[in-house]
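>> Question from a student workshop board

For tomorrow's exercise we were told to take the sequence and the ligand below, predict the bound structure, and bring the output to class. My setup keeps failing. Could a helper post the expected result so I can at least see what it should look like? The ligand is iron/sulfur cluster.
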Amino acid sequence: MEPVLKIENLQVSYYTDAGRARALDGASLALNAGEKLGLVGESGSGKSTMALAMMRMIKPPGRIEGGRVIVGDTDLTTLTEDEMLKTRLEKITYIPQGAMNSLNPVMRIGAQMVDAIKAHDKSLSKAEMSEMSMDSLESVDLDRSVFKMYAHELSGGMKQRVCIAIGILLKPQVIIADEPTSALDVVTQRQVMETIDRVQETLGAAIILIGHDMGLMAQFVDKVAVLYTGRLMEVCTVREMFTNPQHPYAQALIRSLPSFDNKGVFHGIPGLAPALLRLPSGCTFHPRCQHATEICTTTLPRLEQMENGRLVACHLYSEQV
Ligand code: SF4
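>> Workshop helper replied:
Here is what the output should look like for this input. Compare the format with yours to find the bug.
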């Protein structure tokens, strides 16, 4: 099966007075239709940058410096700004962090949805656009009456569902959801995640779920990609990640999770993630890695496919690739 999403060697830098910060350094991924990928990593690891780069929404002083993002048979990096404007929502959609707070408080929900459709297709009648909007609201378990409501009349969970409904109005092939459940209580989190899950299944879209909550990831994604200092460290199935992570950083992430076995003893990851402006030489994890050897301090490990199919960027496995 041809992947619906291919990311090849995507690179993003931010240029500041203090120098160049490489926020994303050569990320490559492929996702099939219907696949769910969780993108995890500490704050500042490049998760949101990767999402924004896929949408071509990086703002100065940031710059996409290389790579390709291919959705279906369209290379997004070659599109004009106008073509890209149409492609967002139609082929690839991004539900940003805190999306529910971006709803316009003085416009009815329906008017905001109709505006989004109008920006893509001016040929549709008002009735058709209203019908599409109400269908989309229904698909995320909201009543059609929400169409006539204002954001302040909705709960946090309902607002987040509205944002998902807007995101899927034009039935995109790829959905990126950036921390879609942050600021929601645990019951609502689960309901929102179930909604995303069902919507994704109905559309047959590929989904990238960005987040910190490994528990939610464990329940809702098929594959996990671990980012650290803008580099992909490991990509594998969710089962492999939780039962047998290979990369020392992925191992440390999993070890740091609370479990019934650790009897209240938490294992943090020693040290701090380095500043992007002053990345260590070689493997960027080497100052925090208990397996580091000489080569780790000088040579950057490439993300390579191991015999078992998973992708790992670590010198420990260089003989196995
Ligand atoms: Fe640790 Fe070396 Fe692997 Fe980096 S390449 S994670 S420093 S063992």
